[in-house]
Amino acid sequence: MVSRTFVAADYAVFAMMLVISSAIGIFYAHRRRKQNHDTLGYLLANKSMTMIPVSISLAMSFQSSITMLAIPAEVYIYGTMILWVLVLYVVIAIITSEIFLPTFYRLGISSTYEYLELRFGKVARLSGTIVFIVASMFYCGIVIYGPALAFQAVTGFPLWAAIITTGLVCTIYTTVGGLEGVIWTDVFQGIIMISGMLAFLIKGSADVGGFSNAWKAAEIGGRIDFVHFETDPRIRNTFWSIVIGGVIRWTGMYGVSQSQVQRYLSCRSERQAKLSVYLNVVGLLLLFTMAVMSGVIIYAYYETCDPLRSQCVQRPDQIYPFMMLDLFKDLPGASGLILSAVYAGSLSSLSSGVNAMATVTMQDVIKPIFKERFTERGYSWISKGSVFVVVFGLVCIGMAFVLSTTKELLQAAFSLMGMLMGSLTGFFALAIQFPFCNSIGAVSGLAAGIVSTIWFYLGSKSIQKSNNFIRRLPLRIDGCSNLCQRSPLDIPTVNSTMSAFLNSTLFLTDETTPSPFLTTVSYGMPSDTTAAILLEYDDDDTPFYSLSYHYISAIGLGVTIAAGIVVSLFTCGWKNRKNVDTRLLRPPFDHWLFRNCLPEKVRWVLRFGIEWEDNVITTTSAREEAISERKGSDDKSEVLQNAGFRPIARVKEPEEE
Predict the structure, then answer these.
(1) Are 82 and 74 in contact (CB under 8 A)?
(2) Which is nearest to 176 in space by CA: 322, 30, 339, 276?
């Protein structure tokens, strides 16, 4: 290994990406200022977007630094089982476009949590909003920390400064540009991300003698493995844990999370929205496959000289940027492109999260409280960041400092999101699929689901897990002629005292350590001590807490639905089920896929004895008429009154172009 540096050309390329990203936001802010000042233009891009930019934006906001840093590291240490994620991407797209999207789009809402008030009332709406904001703060903290970690790794720039810079740049262009600026910035950043990943793959493959040689080396090293179909839920990566846990977790992120729903609600029509969801799957499959291929190449490149055990890096998520400097040390500007790609993925996810948090705060908290006290222009200025975008951007920066104590980016992201998104998915499932579920049952189920996942997460972090279930693969250093010619990449957090406190408080240590209060396994151990520690504990006295972290979302979903059903049945939910406005329901077995094979009597039982018909809106005028009818009800809808709902004010609908 040779000394690596980030040269002037690399800084220039990286700076250009940041400048263009900010310029796009400024451009759309200037254009929007000439057209209107309402919140619809800022939060939903006037419902004027087409499927191609929206699909790219959906794919980019779905991906982040987790894809470019954590997925290659996952393959390098655990193997290619994570590639089964491709299956769940397809499943999620079907669930989203056929169940959640039609329901939300036809109601003409701008926030998914408006739906919860229509279905359950204000308490449910506020509960869903709070859970989403907390989950988004965790996720945005992780996606800020990822590129900051990469930037510190390749430049030596202080981590705290890298975190602040990343957060501020994204906050600026999200503040001024609104959703339209965010979407078009995502398109630009998508081009950068794909270009950077392709450059890494091409140069990396060439340096190891071709991708086929890299595949063979990874196969010999035990990294190529797709056939773990064991039903033992304690095994970290199996087909079942990845697909089942992933579908539930990412349905929450993709089907009901405001950051994603806000994008397809900005489309001109429901058909365009559906096509954007299906089209974005192509981008997801491409980006994730490229990330897995990068992990295979990294293993082949460092097959006999692991930078972790040689202490050139301290964390697996640093391996990608570390190898980047190795590959492009003779090509000025190339490393800047790769780092720009890492940042592009995170900036798109962060802008999505911050913009969505501002949207739900405005639509679900401020407007219901203050109602007509502000004009549309006033609401727009509040949304923009003069208040909310700036506040949430700063909070996410702070969360990044807290999460800098985690050891594995992928597991931290999936675990923290699963704790909340599984329960939130269950919350919406109770609303859409179970007509007898009432407000008391739904809110009780959400609370029970969140408590259960927090309980499981803390319990799982306080025990030792056997490597028989973790299955971390061996790493070699027998081929290192010179371990590292520069100082090892140490990743400082806020300070050592704070780091120790956060580790012990948040249980963010690696899952194979016995307890955060006992000892910490270092990835950079230059001996075989790590393997000895991992294999020392083979007995499992706490099987529940040993479940794979993928299942944390399934626990939240199951407990939420079970508790919600039980409480609803004990509070007269079954008696009042026929009073629910059927526009708020979408029984899955009445979808056209099942109508031809299931008789009406069976489907009647499966939708709990209610009459339901798919109110397909085929034209824009029909949709406007339906929304106008709902707006004109003036809270006099007998069905809504009987069910305890109140129609809420809608934002101005766009005119047909």
Answers:
(1) yes
(2) 30
